[in-house]
Specification:
This is Gamma-secretase activating protein. Pfam families: GSAP-16. The relative contact order is 0.06. The protein is 34% helix and 26% strand. Among the domains are: 180 residues, no CATH class; 211 residues, no CATH class; 65 residues, no CATH class. Strands 19-15-16-17-18-32 form a six-stranded mixed beta sheet, with no helix packed on it. Strands 10, 11, 12, 13 and 14 form a five-stranded antiparallel beta sheet that branches.
């Protein structure tokens, strides 16, 4: 199951036991009879009416006398409370309670039972009442009309003290919305009464609309009206000071002219014909805290062989229309499409047929969204009854009276990642799993374990690249504003492969016309997204060229010994130290992989999120049971070492193309394993092609660990001649060998003669000062001695590790002797 459902509320568990206890207590007082049978009758009529912003759930049932009883379940204290009872046999279809629980608004209609007389006012189908319930007192009739009326109290964000005025929305089937202002006052202690109940001030805030949706969490009203056959989506934001603003208008390319009238999330609507429900249009608006605004739409469906649905990514300026064919469609299809808001994702669900998880933050590429169809058990996970998607990833099943918290199931997504064969599903599943956020280190460990065994599992993208970038992105996304415009979220910029089972059409859409000019919170983020779409043409994509150029400049400066600013470089290295210390502090278990144990100046100049690469190596190290003795050159490579070497090579390929940093010590370990595992010609080829980077630490250890056998001499010399000059000079002094002496001598002579100007000299040479009578060498050594003497007089501090003309003479003689075979 791709989704995990956690029951947050159930009528059968959270309300029914309390009703049973109340009934038993009443019978004990002699005030009731027929307990069990009556309780079963109560349960049959027990249903949820509404869920308020503070989590309180309003429910209703009928007692044994047919009276309508209202109850409230407090979502925070998990306690039940009776609110009110009508001593008439009526049906309730809309109800709301104010935040202080002092007022109850309800709309009632005539009972559907045959033979019942009209209990309402003559000529009215619906009666809308406002009741004082703290304590139970007056009842005021707000509406007595021949059309349905829905009610909803506004809940201000400031709830620390009771407000003198309550605001109530009335939504009429006659396509208008009114806002009543209800002033209350306390009398006789805590008794709350309505002031001026004869005339309640009201405002008509919308009319001629065909669809409306209530967002109880953010106190927003979305509605669509038709202007010249165009569907215009509007939004009203209500504030704690009782004011409200029309925030935006945006045209939608959908047809609602013949769709009738529909409300979303104004309580539970039990009066829709469920047989017809599946063929009606589905339309809902979803937002999240990052400033996203999505409109999900599925038109009326005449036949079920093919189904179409659209998602308008208003915050991105485009829409996507999906079409999929259904198989094994029954003759009576009573379930329609369900849209679910899962924060960073929108789920489109048709029980038994398909499950589509759409990435809201990055909808451009279809490979970042997960589409499952067929017999996959993951597409049949939710209840088959009509569902209401509520803010906070809540889902209400009105039929069963259950409220669920819906989350992405990390374990199921990991299982799918391991079992699916399609690259597009691997890509989408990887992002879905990493976006969950819970137990990040454990999740990354599981993914790393799978990656270490399946490096070649994907052909359309580099799995290591995608994991490093996606994990880094999702780990900081929730804490950083607009980070998606600064950091990469994927290694893939284009995707041209079709997704099996679905076709897609992408179209640009009009941007909302904002009606206000000062933004805070969500509206500020939405406006920022819209400004980006409007002015960033073409849209930005992360490019590492600036980082690459800066790093190359730093490395060049390091080689030449010239720095632009010592403070600038020191600041970079200090930041690197902080990153490394944070990595070490985050992990309680000792590390097996010998990294971060050397001064790797290059990698410290390019420091970033290194922990993921370290985790990958740790997993491989543990899997192959390697130990610290691997760091010695005087051992032979095993199959386990070759496997880790291959993994490190793949990591290097992935990070090089993306220009990502590696943990200090990575190149040293990689080189040591290469020496263990590769024949000499392959090893040298890897060095020459840049796959292996020779570090001072690795070469120093090689010189010390290996003796001077003919094979090792050939390896050492091949390594030394490939070193940068500065490092090569230091390494040669560690190798007590004629070859290294020759190299040291050459470097010394080159340094002395680079500014040498020939001067007239005495042709007579003092032969007694030379151990061998060989005039060319004697003459050359005398010249070097003179230069050294001059330099010492001019620069007395400068020294070169006791390398002088005498050392050069000795090295030259040894080299000549070796060449002559003497």
């Amino acid at each position: 199951m791709a989704l995990r459902l956690v029951a947050d509320f159930e009528l059968g568990k959270d309300v029914l036991p309390w009703l049973r206890a109340q009934r038993e207590a009443s019978e004990a007082r002699g005030a009731g009879s027929g307990g069990a049978d009556v309780l079963e009758n109560d349960y049959e009529s027990l249903r949820v009416l509404n869920i308020e912003r503070n989590g309180n759930i309003i429910y209703t049932y009928k007692d044994d006398k047919g009276n309508v009883v209202f109850g409230l379940y407090d979502g925070q204290t998990r306690q039940n409370k009776l609110l009110y009872a009508f001593e008439k046999d009526l049906e309730v279809f809309s109800c709301s309670v104010n935040s202080e629980r002092t007022l109850l608004a309800a709309s009632l209609i005539q009972s559907t039972k045959e033979g019942k007389r009209n209990e309402l006012q003559p000529g009215s189908k619906c009666l809308t009442l406002l009741v004082e319930i703290h304590p139970v007192n007056n009842v005021k009739v707000l509406k007595a009309v021949d059309s349905y009326i829905w009610v909803q109290f506004l809940y201000p964000h400031v709830e620390s003290h009771p407000l003198p005025e309550n605001c109530l929305l009335l939504i009429s089937e006659e396509k208008y919305i009114e806002k009543f202002r209800v002033h209350v006052a306390q009398e006789d202690g805590n008794r709350v009464v309505i002031k001026n109940s004869g005339h309640l001030p009201r405002d008509r805030i919308a009319e001629d609309f065909v669809w409306a949706q209530w967002d109880m969490s953010e106190q927003r009203l979305y509605y669509i009206d038709l202007k010249k056959s165009k569907s215009i989506l509007k939004c009203i934001q209500f504030y704690a000071d009782e004011s409200y603003n029309l925030m935006f208008e945006v045209p939608l390319d959908i047809s609602l002219s013949n769709s009738g009238f529909k409300l979303v999330n104004f309580g539970c609507d039990y009066h829709q014909d469920r047989e017809k429900l599946s063929k009606h249009l589905s339309l809902c608006v979803f937002t999240n805290h990052t400033g996203s605004l999505c409109v999900c739409y599925s038109p009326k469906c005449a036949a079920w062989e093919q189904i179409t649905y659209s998602v308008f990514y208003i915050h991105k300026g485009h829409s996507k229309t999906f079409t999929t064919s259904l198989k094994n469609v029954g003759s009576h299809m009573t379930k329609g499409i369900t849209f679910l808001n899962l924060d960073y994702y929108v789920a489109v669900y048709l029980p038994g047929h398909f499950f589509h998880l759409l990435n809201v933050q990055h909808p451009d590429l279809i490979c970042h969204s997960l589409f499952l169809t067929g017999n996959n058990e993951m597409i049949d996970m939710l209840p088959h009854s009509p569902l209401q998607s509520l803010p906070g990833s809540l889902v209400l099943d009105c039929c069963s009276g259950k409220l669920y918290k819906v989350m992405l199931s990390q374990s199921s997504l990991l299982q799918l990642l391991q079992n699916t064969r399609l690259d597009c599903e691997k890509m989408a599943t990887l992002h879905c799993a990493l976006s969950c956020g819970q137990g990040a280190q454990f999740l990354e460990g599981q993914i790393i374990q799978w990656i270490s065994e399946n490096f070649s599992a994907c052909h359309s993208f580099d799995l290591i690249q995608e994991f490093i970038i996606a994990s880094s992105y999702w780990s900081v996304y929730s804490e950083t504003s607009n980070v998606d415009k600064l950091l990469p979220h994927s290694s893939v910029l284009t995707w041209n492969t079709e997704i099996p089972g679905i076709t897609l059409v992408t179209e640009d859409t009009a941007l909302p016309l904002m009606k206000v000019h000062s933004f805070k919170g969500y509206w500020e983020k939405l406006n920022s997204n819209l400004e980006y779409v409007k002015y960033a043409k073409p849209h930005f994509h992360y490019n590492n060229s600036v980082v690459r150029r800066e790093w190359q400049n730093l490395i060049s400066e390091e080689k030449t010994g010239k720095r632009r600013s010592t403070a600038y470089v020191r600041n970079i290295l200090d930041n690197a130290i902080k990153v490394i210390s944070n990595l070490e502090a985050r992990n309680l278990e000792p590390r097996l992989t010998p990294l971060l144990q050397e001064e790797d100046s290059r990698q410290r100049l390019l420091m970033g999120l290194l922990d993921l690469i370290w985790h990958i190596l740790e997993a491989s190290w543990r899997k192959h049971n390697l130990h610290s003795w691997v760091l010695h050159f005087n051992s032979h490579g095993s199959a386990a070492e070759f496997a880790v070497f291959h993994i490190m090579t793949r990591i290097l390929e992935a990070t090089n193309s993306l220009f990502l940093p590696l943990p200090p010590g990575f190149h040293t370990l990689h080189t040591i394993l290469g020496v263990h595992c590769l024949p000499l010609h392959n090893l040298l080829h890897c060095i020459d092609s840049g796959v292996l980077l020779l570090t001072e630490t690795a070469v120093t250890r090689l010189m010390k660990d290996l003796d001077n056998t003919e094979k090792n001499e050939k390896l050492k010399f091949s390594i030394i001649v490939r070193l940068p000059p500065l490092i090569g000079q230091k390494i040669c002094r560690l190798w007590d060998h004629p070859m290294s002496s020759n190299i040291i001598s050459r470097n010394h002579v080159m340094r002395l003669l680079q500014n040498y100007k020939k001067q007239p000299r005495n042709s007579m040479i003092d032969k007694s000062s030379f151990s061998v009578e060989f005039l060319p060498l004697n003459y050359f050594i005398e010249i070097l001695t003179d230069i050294e003497s001059t330099n010492q007089a001019l620069y007395p501090v400068e020294q070169h590790d006791n390398v002088d003309a005498e050392f050069v003479e000795e090295a030259a003689l040894k080299h000549t002797t070796m060449l002559l075979g003497l």
